[in-house]
Structures are given as C-alpha cells and as structure tokens.
Amino acid sequence: MSESETTISAYTEREQPPDERTEEQERESERTCPECGGAVVADEEHGETVCRDCGLVVEEDAIDRGPEWRSFDRDGESKSRVGAPTTKMMHDDGLSTNIGWQNKDAYGNALSAERRQQMQRLRTWHERFRTRDSKERNLKQALGEIDRMASALGLPENVRETASVIYRRALSEDLLPGRSIEGVASASLYAAARQANTPRSLDELTAVSRVDRMELTRTYRYVVRELKLEVAPADPAQYVGRFASDLGLSDEGEWRARELLKTAGKTGVTSGKSPVGLAAAAVYAAALLTNEALTQSEVSDVAGVSEVTIRNRYKELLEASEVGDAGGGADRASA
After folding, report:
1. Which of 67, 86, 201, 221 has its CA 20 to 30 A from that of 307?
2. Are residues 242 and 223 in the same domain?
3. DSSP 166-210
4. Does some domain include residue 52?
5. Pairing of strands 57-59, 48-51
6. What burial letters (b/e) apply to 304-329, b meaning 16+ CB within 10 Å?
7. How far lies 134's CA from each of 129, 173, 188, in Å?
8. CA torsion, points 260, 262, 267, 273, in degrees to nearest 10?
C-alpha cells in the first residue's frame, strides 16, 4: 500500500466528515423519542411517527412513498392511474371516453360558433364509433333502459349491476330472438331486485316499463327458467319497511306488522297469496292495533293493491294472530 493510500484510510478511520456525522446523528435521534428516549414507530395510516412508549407524535404529515396508482380490480393486479372502475352497466364496461357537452375549453372559456359545430360533429361520430355492430347497439339500449327503470324505482347500485349481468347472460345465450329488448330488460331488473331482497311489485315495475304486465311476467318466467336463476319466493315482510316509511307509520306499528306476518306464516295463512297484498294488509292492521290514523285508501295508493284485497287480507291476519296467541297461551298453560 502506498503512503498516500495509508494516509487516506487512516483519516477515514480516525475522523468522518462533518456533514456525514451530522446526518448519522440526525437519523439516530429520529429513531428515539425526544421526551422519554423510547423507540418510535411509523403510523402509515395516519402519516405520523409516534413513540411506542409514551405516545408522543414526533412527526406528522409524512410523505406517502407508496405507489401512486390505484387498483380497481378484485385481484389487485390492475395498476390503473386514472379512470373509474369498470362496470357492467355500460356496454363497453366503462372503458371508453366521453366528449363533454359543456362547449368550454380547458380554461373555462366558451367556444366559438365554428368550434362548437366541430365539437358537435365529433360527438356524433364518437357515439357512432362506440358501438361496433347491432348487438352492441341493442346492449347499449337495454342497459340504458335498466338504469332508467332502476332510477325510477329507487333501486340501489348492486341491483342495477346484477340486472346488467342477467341481461348479458340472456344475450349471450340467444334468448332475445322473438322478444323485445325492453321486455327482457324489465324481466332482468325484476329478477335482480328479487335476488337482492329489495323486491318491487309487478305493478310498480309495469308502471315504469315500456311493456305490459302480461309480457313482463311471461318474459320473466322464460328468463328464470332458461338461465336457471335462483330466485326465492317473495317475503311479504320485505315490503313492510317501504310501505311503513311512505305512510309515516310508527316503529311500533312496523314491528306489529312484521309480527302479524310472522304469525300468519306459521299458521299457513300467507301460502298462495300475493306478498304485496299481505304486506299492505299487515300495515293497515298494525295501524289499527296501534291506534294510528291510516285509511285503506291511503294504504291502497302506496301499495298499489285494491281496497278489497286489503280488507280481506287484514281480517285473515288478525284471525291468525288470535289463533296464534291462543295456541301460545295453551302451550304455556300445559307447560
């Protein structure tokens, strides 16, 4: 080893440069709490560095050094940096772009007349190119119909997604020939609402659909049979909450209505009867039991069933409730 190399190595071992020593000391001080000298840990969820012993916040608003992309798929493999998650409610799964209708540039200034005409032509051609063939155009129309009816009925997002998937399955298995797009779309939405335990009556769906009730029921039975959908029988109690909310029924009245339906189900009164009519009758009977001012006409308007149905069903529910109470009392007496 030469004399110069020996001198440099000796200098390195003996003394470090001031800047390097200062940085090492700062890193050492960051690893200990300035109050109690305990170890500090990084809380990445809140962006803070805190002491493990005394809880002192040593540093806040830390820089997130993780990836800037977000994963929108279920497996976490897609590293998309922009855009909304894919959805089955759009014919192209939401992967295409849209040209806005604001007629303004990036700075918010209004476009000239010539530029507005140009953008209008671009929008027209863009809409034409979004669908490749008649099959995609029909799918786009059907999904728009499902979204329109779901909005009118107040159905949540998961029901719309399920209805879109059911319609896509019907389209892929060639169930549409001989049937209207609106009919299959309405049947898909009705089946999706039943599967999600947020059912709507056939009268409610017919009111917002472009097909009549007979075509809707026929198409619904065909779609359920061909696609082998698992749809449980409608439970009258699923309608009670919505009817009670629309009619302003108290919590006690809603509880009474559910109890009436539960007792009637045990005695077999609900078998073979319309769940909507049973729910409406239960709400009316519960209003009578809780001394709330509610007429059959008001219940009929909300539920979409006739007053005759309500009169017949609420008497059956009250009789079943008396039978159930008597049977329960006899059981308790024998015990």
Report:
1. 221
2. no
3. HHHHHHHTT--TTS-HHHHHHHHHHHHHHHTT----HHHHHHHSS
4. no
5. antiparallel
6. bbeeebbeebbebbbebbeebeeeee
7. 12, 16, 20
8. 80
Q: Which two tokens stand for residue 289?
A: 């039991």
**210 and 291 both lie in a single domain:** no
User: d(Cα 318, Cα 257) in Å, to the nearest integer?
Assistant: 10
How does pLDDT run along the chain (335 residues), one tens digit per residue?
Answer: 555 444 444 444 444 444 444 555 455 555 788 888 888 888 877 778 888 888 888 888 777 666 655 555 555 555 555 556 667 777 666 667 777 778 888 788 888 899 889 889 988 887 777 777 777 888 888 899 999 999 999 999 999 999 999 999 998 898 988 899 999 999 999 999 999 888 888 888 999 999 999 999 999 999 999 999 988 877 888 889 889 998 999 999 999 999 999 888 888 888 888 888 899 999 999 999 999 888 899 999 988 888 998 988 888 888 888 865 555 544 433 43
Q: What is the CATH number of the domain that holds 317?
A: 1.10.472.10
Q: Which domain holds residue 293?
A: 237-328
* 157's tokens: 């997002």
Would you say the pTM of this structure is higher than 0.85? no
Rounded Cα gap, residues 184 and 272, in angstroms: 26
Q: Are residues 213 and 259 in the same domain?
A: no
Q: What is the Cα–Cα distance from 263 to 323, expressed in whole angstroms?
A: 9
Q: Are residues 155 and 221 in the same domain?
A: yes
Residue 113, C-beta contacts closer than 8 angstroms, at least 6 positions apart? none
Domain count, the chain: 2
